[in-house]
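fwd from M.: "can u put these together and see what the complex looks like"

so here's what she sent:
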Amino acid sequence: MRLHSRARIVPAAAAVCALAVVLAGCSGTTKNDTAEATTPGASDAKADPSAPIKKGLKIAFLPKQINNPYFTILDGSGIAAAKELGASAKEVGSSDAKASSQVSYINTLVQQRQDAILIAANDPNAVCGALKTARQQKIKIVTYDSDTGKDCRDLFLNQTSSEQIGRSQIQNIAEQLGNKGEIAVLSATSNATNQNTWIEFMKDELKKPAYKDMKLVKVAYGDDDDQKSFQETQGLLKAYPNLKGIISPTTVGIAAAARYIGGSSYKGKVVLNGLGTPNQMRKFVKDGTVEQFSLWDPKKLGRLGAYAAASLASGRITGAEGEKFTAGDLGEYTIGKDGEVILGPPTVFDRGNIDDFDF
Amino acid sequence: MSALTKYLRWDTAVGILLIAVFLAGTGTTEGFSDTANLSAALDDTAEIALIALPMTLLVVAGQVDLSVASMLGLSSALAGSLWDAGWTFELIVPVCLLAGALGGLLNGWLVTRIGLPSLAVTIGTLTLYRGLASVALGDKAVADFPEAYAKWARYTETVPGTFVPYPVALFAVLAVVAAVVLHCTGFGRSLFAIGAQEEAAHFAGIRVKRIKLALFMVSGLVASFAGIVYTLRYGSARADNGVGLELVVIASVLLGGIDFDGGRGTLGGAVAGVLLIGLLNNLLTLNDVSNEIQVIVTGLLLVASVLTPRVIATLGERRHRHAAAAPAK
């Protein structure tokens, strides 16, 4: 019987292989012979800067995940700003940071006939199909925090320029370390668009002669999961005994890393810097675990999002380069290349100013 | 009384609940019964639904395959890396399917030849296949699949004259096949026999090992096919595609009244379970019910699906004993 069953599997596998070979012979489509036709980001519609902001617009925020403190603040501020503009706004999303969950939310938002969707994409490609369908239904798409492909959205609101963030992360920690020593990066997920771009700029900054005594030994991924980030920090410090500093450019990662370092013998010996929120990091700054960290103000990003979405949905802007729009008390913004709008440079928080911020 | 227990079967109840959710959604929620929404909601469950079919057969036979989502990820990663290397899509598909069948073969071999429990084996291969996926594609994402292929997986493209997207249409066909196999053939009866009493089935002349091996291979094959559907549907091949999906599949199957101990359940129930979770989540999302509440609702349904059949069985038994004790009229 043993022989019998094997005798059946082998021909079956052989048949599949043969089929594969035959199909390979046929001229199929490969990566090389598909010319990707990309539709331009901005629509043909003309912008009317004097158009009034429409009342009763429906705006939805779709963060990477809900119950993430950073997005709770950002979306909350955006929703409040939208209300000031006479729009109704809400935050929807899943508690897992998955692109597949975001796609089902986009589909239901289309069904609910929202006027604009603001999304922080978990995967720049996976949400694109659904976003394109939404755009065909005249729904305006604004990405914030993490961008998608250019042809899947109208505008991308960048917290600061990626270059500014990446380089400043190195500049800040280099100053703390006196331009010497091994450093590591504790990132979010390995697919996060923004994180990877920043890390590229960090690596580029490190090539400058001023940093010849500094070395990036490892990029670890905590998946924006508190426990995993905590364990990765522990792992980094064990694996690299000469490690002098950790940069964690993610709010979940830096807090977890601070919790580990603060409770270990590395406290005061290893410098932790990165991107965090003042409320999350306050106690670590006060107890000396962390000297400084930086971040843009998510409340401002949320407000900018609401104004950008409302301006798009009212026809004041179309997303074309050079168009201008005002975002209330934040002032005037100009749309840059590829529909990108930059909020402004990041703020450094330390013992001196941290109590001025509550988010 | 037998009529009551007959009609109160859990899988029938899930079917009724499915219809009730659909009617309630149509009546209360604008846009719910739009064909575009139904297409999207159905398409969203495509991979889960496909994998649920072999999973139903496995669970009926007292087995489980926890490696399906990892196999989906491996198939996706393989498709991505081969596409990146310039292979034709027509060649990528059979290679991925072959990988799925081999993965299933390994599961089946470990279960039948080494004699390990399927739960333990597939927890191991869950990690193994996900690891292989990371080796195949690393942390890259491959996204430039041509529209000519991608459109077949998306909800915007439907079988002409219906609102059924192609992956769901394929699922419907396979579901009928699976239902016939499970309920109308000797092979199907063997699965129930194995699930109820493996030893007895063996001595009754059922080729238990060979059947189990075949089931695991089919499970791997379907999971790898679902990986291709997933990759095209989201236009993104990644090693971490479908993480955690195995639990949703098993939850849907159990919700459909398939007994986790094996030997009991209907394929119709499993299909109803899959569709119920999909439609219910869609309906709740359209009504702006938060994700946390959705998770709780699904959890409660699951607990009910495990509890209710037992409660009914106990009640039926008690009545039966009562009836037997009473003097005949």
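replying to her w this: Chain B has a mean pLDDT of 93.
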